[in-house]
Specification:
546 residues, alpha/beta, 2 domains, 17% strand, METTL16/RlmF, RNA-binding
């Protein structure tokens, strides 16, 4: 349950998720849906509507003393998510135990929000419903839990939200309203077509619910706009208006709509549970209400601040130092200096701008600015070059010649043509030697003099390239996107870049730890790629025989 740590702090399932094994031993109707994995772990098939319903009913019974019935053809709520919403409403209205009066728009067959609010906090509810089946089940669930004195379930006409529901409730001021609106605009959206990011995995749980529960004209965006329209007429009849959203993209346009209408108090939050995210929006026309702060970006900031790291073990440091002592640093240099010098040499060969910056004792730091991606698919490009070499036509066998003609051939350089095999062997051993004057025209690199050959060879051969390492801040050679006159001279002043990061190299006992801290840029995946490239190249260098 990846998002449980971000649940509302008062959610009982935040640090103690449901124990399926215990619940199965106590409730036979739940036990029949629990499966045991090969490791002995109790599991539930969340794509089975009956299993999901059994879990919801069991949790409500075990943790809240509520007994409910839900038809399979109607929406089956998840308890942790609904509990998150209840706790947020507590934050809005300022208290858990005080008697409050609320409205649940579209209460559903389970009537779960009124049942939780009434049983936990003693809140009174007006619960509205347009669907006949849901209305009947909601009334039954309220009555069998003996909460009819706190919860009033009313049947309202189709498309009714707040205005019509409050016609007979004139003069009453409600503390809040809650709403779980239909998320989808049509059947295709409900099936996940054109409404779900293609990179996201498919939903892990079944999508249940009647048409009126999951679909509405214009989807959740237009549905909530209708609630906003009603609130502009009702204004202070409710202290807080709120609704839950299934799509994050709906949040910004709704907040903009409230801003245009001059609504003075607006806030929002996130509901995190399991692998599901939901968002909620609330607004008020009262000046004296306390507005809870929107969720801080603590989760995202923690993720952003966590550096990418890898450890270079002491034997690897020793190997790097012995193999590159003549080109990197002196024999007596520290482990941190050895790895830092290797990083500087590799980054220079990759045309990544970098310079040393002040840092703490016993560590070194480099400030990196990547202007172009020169580290991706290096080995793949080298294999493609070798493939092209293998496909070259072989030279025909030389005819038998007498000793005299052989002597003549030795004196004639035009007859000495290299074979494809020799060229391939030459590419594997001396890739930098394949210049434009030695390789055939169809495999020569037209950008070689611009430093493009860095994409065609492994890093362990970088020392053979013709890229001159003048200083740690060597200018990047010109590319298609930049000319020599526009390329920056320093990684800290460049205006065009993919990303910037800070690399810390520090000793940890006998080993060396390399940390890459994100600063800014287009995509953190690029820094991740570079980190993986540096780590793999360093370990390959250390593992190759001298």
């Amino acid at each position: 349950m990846a998002l449980n740590k971000s649940m509302h702090p008062r959610n009982r399932y935040k640090d103690k998720p449901p124990d399926f094994a215990y619940l199965a031993s106590k409730y036979p109707e739940f036990q029949q849906h629990v499966q045991t994995s090969l490791t002995g772990r109790a599991m539930l098939n969340f794509k089975d509507p009956e299993a999901v319903r059994a879990l919801t009913c069991t949790l409500l019974k075990e943790d809240f003393g509520l007994t409910i019935e839900i038809p399979l053809e109607r929406l089956i709520p998840t308890v942790p998510l609904r509990l998150n919403y209840i706790h947020w409403v507590e934050d809005l209205i300022g208290g858990q135990g005080n008697p409050r009066l609320g409205i649940d728009i579209g209460t559903g067959a389970s009537c779960i929000y009124p049942l939780l609010g009434a049983s936990m906090n003693g809140w009174r509810f007006l619960a509205t419903e347009v669907d006949d089946i849901c209305f009947n089940y909601a009334k039954k669930n309220v009555e069998q839990n003996h909460l009819a004195d706190l919860i009033k379930v009313v049947k309202v006409p189709q498309k009714t939200l707040l205005m019509d529901a409050l016609k007979e409730e004139s003069g009453i001021v409600y503390d809040f309203c809650m709403c779980n609106p239909p998320f989808f605009a049509n059947q295709l959206e409900a099936q996940g077509v054109n409404s779900r990011n293609s990179r996201r995995p498919p939903p892990s749980s079944v999508n249940t619910g009647g048409v009126t529960e999951i679909m509405a004209e214009g989807g959740e965006l237009e549905f909530v706009k209708r609630i906003i329209h009603d609130s502009l007429q009702l204004k202070k009849r409710l202290r807080w208006y709120s609704c839950m959203l299934g799509k994050k993209c709906s949040l910004a346009p709704l907040k903009e709509e409230l801003r245009k209408q001059g609504v003075p108090k607006v806030t929002h939050t996130e509901f995190c549970q399991g692998r599901t995210m939901r968002w909620a929006l609330a607004w008020s026309f009262y000046d004296d209400v306390t507005v809870p702060s929107p969720p801080c970006k603590k989760r995202k900031l923690e993720k952003a601040r966590k550096p990418l790291t890898f450890t270079v073990l002491q034997p690897t440091v020793t190997e790097v130092q012995s193999k590159a002592a003549s080109t990197l640093c002196s024999h007596g240099s520290s482990s941190v200096e050895v790895i830092t010098a290797w990083l500087e040499k590799t980054l220079t060969d990759l045309r990544v701008l970098h310079k040393r910056v002040p840092c703490g004792e016993e560590e070194l730091s480099l400030f990196l600015t990547a202007v172009e991606n020169t580290w991706i698919h290096v080995r793949q490009k080298r294999r493609e070059q070798n493939r092209q070499l293998r496909e070259l036509p072989r030279a025909p066998p030389a005819p038998e010649q007498d000793p005299g003609s052989s002597e003549q051939a030795q004196n004639n350089p035009k007859t000495d043509q290299p074979s494809a095999e020799n060229l391939e062997a030459q590419a594997d051993t001396e890739p930098a030697a394949l210049g434009s004057d030695q390789a055939p025209e169809d495999i020569s690199d037209p950008n070689r003099n611009n430093g493009k050959e860095a994409d065609l060879q492994d890093t362990d051969l970088l020392s053979q390239r013709d890229v001159t390492m003048e200083s740690p801040t060597t200018e990047v050679p010109p590319t298609q996107d930049a000319t020599p006159s526009t390329m920056p001279e320093s990684p800290s002043t460049t205006q065009r870049f993919l990303f910037k990061c800070l690399v810390n190299v520090k000793a940890e006992e006998k080993d060396v730890v390399v940390e890459m801290h994100w600063v800014e840029g287009q995509n953190k995946d690029l820094m991740n790629q570079l980190c993986t490239y540096l780590k793999n190249t360093l370990f390959r260098l250390a593992s190759k025989p001298v």
